[in-house]
Write a structure and sequence with these properties.
3-stranded antiparallel beta sheet, mainly alpha
Length: 176
């Protein structure tokens, strides 16, 4: 599989996984005493994974139009965005104070005992961050082998204008 296609697939997978983590349950909270439990989606807890995924996909799209040096710089940036998403997935665990700020019924005054359990969203965010970081690394390592965006439409620099006219007279397209 060509490295450009691999980077595209990894970026799309990262966007899907990080976007999905925004809608899945990040933390489930049980306030106790028969009160109904509260589920917090990833987007309620943190907006960072979706933002990092969108920034990464935009950077990958820009690499299609860039030269080798800029591709490597953007690949490094995408790698850092992926590492940031991994850090968010591993590090964002809201405490009782943060949860009670989001939902006042979970405060210590109202609830006797609050029990937290993690949902599946951090795992999706972790997988998406790994995919984004891998896409960035592949970009950095293989940027010199990617086709340029305009290479298809450039003419042969060795051909003289007279050779191009002869090709046109023969019914050939000298730009291919």
């Amino acid at each position: 599989m060509r490295s450009q296609r691999l980077v595209d697939l990894l970026a799309l997978a990262a966007l899907a996984l990080l976007g999905l983590s925004a809608y899945l349950t990040w933390v489930s909270v049980d306030p106790g005493n028969g009160r109904p439990g509260v589920d917090f989606s990833g987007y309620t807890i943190t907006k960072a994974p979706v933002t990092l995924a969108l920034a990464g996909v935009v950077a990958i799209v820009v690499t299609k139009l860039a030269g080798t040096t800029l591709r490597r710089i953007l690949g490094g940036l995408v790698t850092l965005l992926g590492v940031g998403a991994i850090g968010v997935a591993l590090g964002v665990r809201p405490g009782d104070a943060e949860l009670s700020r989001l939902r006042p019924e979970l405060s210590d005054v109202v609830a006797d005992h609050v029990t937290q359990s993690l949902g599946p969203a951090p795992w999706f965010a972790l997988a998406g961050g790994l995919a984004l970081a891998t896409a960035g690394l592949v970009t950095v390592l293989t940027a010199h082998r990617w086709r340029r965006a305009t290479a298809r439409y450039e003419r042969d620099p060795a051909a003289t204008p007279a050779d191009q006219w002869k090709a046109i007279d023969a019914g050939e397209d000298p730009t291919l």
